[in-house]
Amino acid sequence: MHLRKTSVKRKNKHYTYVQIVESFRRSKDGMPTVKVLSNLGQLSELEFENLRSAFEASRTGKTVVVKESTLTKQKNDYLKPRQNLAFLDIAVLFELWQEWRLDEIMSKELFADNRKEVDPGKIIFILVAHRCTDPGSKLSTTRWFPRTSLPELLSINPVSFNNTRIHRALELIERANFQLMAKLTRLYRERKGAFATVFLDVTDTWFVGQGPSLAEMGKTKEGLLRKKIGIVLLCNEDGFPIRWDVIIGNQNDSITMTDMIESIKSVSWMKGVPLVCDRAMGKTAQIADLSSMGVFYVTALTRTEFATYTTDLPLLELIEEDLEDKQKLVEIATKKIKATPWIEIDESLFVFDFGVVKRTLPYTSKSASKNDTNYVSEAMRICHKIEQMVAEGEYDSYRAAGSALGLKKSLAYKYCRLQQLPLDIQDRIIRGEAENSTLDNLISLTKLTSSEEIIEKFEELSKIPKRKKNPMNLTNSNCEKDIELELRVVAYFNPVIFADQRIGAAKKLDKVRRFESELNSRLNSSRKFRSTESISSEVDRFLRRDGLLTAFKTIIKNVETGGRHVQQVNLELDHKDWEKRGRYHGFTVLVAHPKIDLDAQQLCQLYREKNTVEAGFRSIKSCLDIRPVHHRTDLKVKAHTSVCMLALLLERTLRKKLGSKYSSAQAALEILEPCYLNRYISGKGSLYVVTEIDKEQRTLLKHLDALHLADDDVIRDRIVSRT
Fold first, then answer.
1. 217, 377, 562, 615 - which has most CB atoms within 10 Å?
2. What angle do CA 61, 64, 68 make, to 5 degrees?
């Protein structure tokens, strides 16, 4: 007897059966053949081999002994991985991190004196990777980390990553913030050369709970009433973050932008580079500031300023009919604008160049606007400016930087002593909480060793009564002066925006009429009269929400209806004001430095590209999930913002590498996410195998020139097994 395998093909499928057969010769012709003694069906390869060994042993008269290792092998025929570790998306981010040499910069430059058991730079990357791949996770970073391949990629024992190290790394990244931004700027320029454009904008984020001292109650950009802070961001044309800062919650955007521009106006990489900012800088006072600082600015005027710079915008009469038919409105607006000398660039852009306009503007210098008691906060700002200038590499020493700002050696030394104060105290000084103190009193705080003593002493200094004179004159001028201003004026018109604004205005008008009707209905059914002041206040609150206070006149009168007197409200539309509001629908007027060598079309397109920084804010708000923030101190909030900016850098780099092949960097990371680093446990330790990549993942890795990340041998050489 012996075993035989039989293969059968049915419906394009192959089936293999095992049979016990016996050889014999046919009686009729003596030819050898076999007969089937038993059909054993389908058997595994191991079962077939065991049976064949048994038959062989039976023929030779030997005993079959099954070794224990064979049993173990049979039992563990299908090995299971001990862990499936998040890998490919994180590995791609780590490649980008190393490509920017951020691991080197943090390890060897920023944190060279703070390397202990775990490199703080590695902790920062963990936080950045978490922002990019799993920002919405309800798990804390410390619980997320061991479930990823980061312990292997970074050679960190999972138990060594804890909250203490996270907070220590956050403190270090905030203290090195100036140096980090300076080094990023250098890296960008090394890779691509001089910047073509820089974009500036401001957003906000809000908090769970009270938030830090910088947080103030106010309306967010989305109209929510929250405890919030502001974030100012400067990007280059690729959307890479160049500068960022965290500011108090309710600070005016124009003040915030002006402060940021002041801090960069003299750096070498800003020379001749257009700075694009939005309408927050589009009023005369802000334009005067931009001109005085010598930057090559491009900004849009607020509507209230249009007539100041040009009265030649074409008049598109109010279109009352078909306000719900957007396409028809677009067609009407396009036809009207084509009848003017404006140049059509495409169906959504018509431009007109008004050339260089000369104006005489009243201007009060920034230094002259400061009162006699705020020299302490100004000293703190100058201290930060000196620190930044040295970090930028513009000057080799604080003395040289101070001299460039017109400070004597002794005064520059005093200002720089303020750097030794805790960061939260520095922020409070800038906010004016020590204006009645003296510079020497604040410097004396640096001699104290206990943070509790510093805070206690600072609280005493903040309560000093107001002084009559400024003992140290920081300004050279306290008078207003008129300046002759030359600026480039260009306008553009978008028929689609025109239609949207007209329809939006009509909806606002309908909303007012519905409010009027509902209010009169309530007054008609009320059993008692309300005071005129109460009704007026309710109307004012409603109209104020949409900025319509000047568009309507409120008339409250008593009327008789059904034999009883009731109050009624009539909101009378000021047609002149309403027409004035619609006068500039669809129009944008740009002002720019006259030395910017761009034609009207290029200027308009340059301004429209400001969505570069706006897209950055959308990324950190959505994909990177910067809000709400849970940190409670100014330092941690600023550090958290820096982590989000580094995550934005990786996200933008990934998107730029992929081009238009994927909708977003986040979509690409989601494609990579299912590929794990599978960890098996054997007698010799851990064995790692990468999940086999699919076609889409392979294509994506090819675009990134990163196919090696799916190679088991390469990965085994790069990682360190966790303990």
1. 377
2. 165
CA distance 344 to 405: 47
Longest CA–CA span in the chain (Å) reads: 134
The Cα 118–Cα 125 span in angstroms is 12
The dihedral through the CA atoms of 94, 96, 101, 106 has a sign that is: negative
Report CA torsion sign: 594, 600, 602, 604. Answer: positive
Judge whether 312 lies within some domain. Answer: no
d(CA 426, CA 377): 9
Signed CA dihedral, 56, 58, 61, 62: sign only = positive
Task: Note whether residue 670 is domain-resident.
Answer: yes
Whether this prediction's pTM lies above 0.85 is answered by: no
Q: Is 19 in a helix, a strand, or coil?
A: strand
Other Cβ atoms less than 10 A from the Cβ of 386: the count is 26
Angle at which helices 163-175 and 120-133 pack, to 10 degrees? 100
Question: CA distances (Å), 240 to each of 321, 599, 700, in order?
Answer: 46, 26, 22
Q: Name the pairing type of β-strands 564-573 and 676-682.
A: unpaired
In the predicted model, residues of the chain with pLDDT beneath 50 are 68-76, 362-373, 468-480, 623-624
Domain boundary among 544, 559, 582: 582
pLDDT, one tens digit per residue, over 96-120 is 999 999 999 998 899 887 666 789 9
Q: Does residue 366 lie in a domain region?
A: no
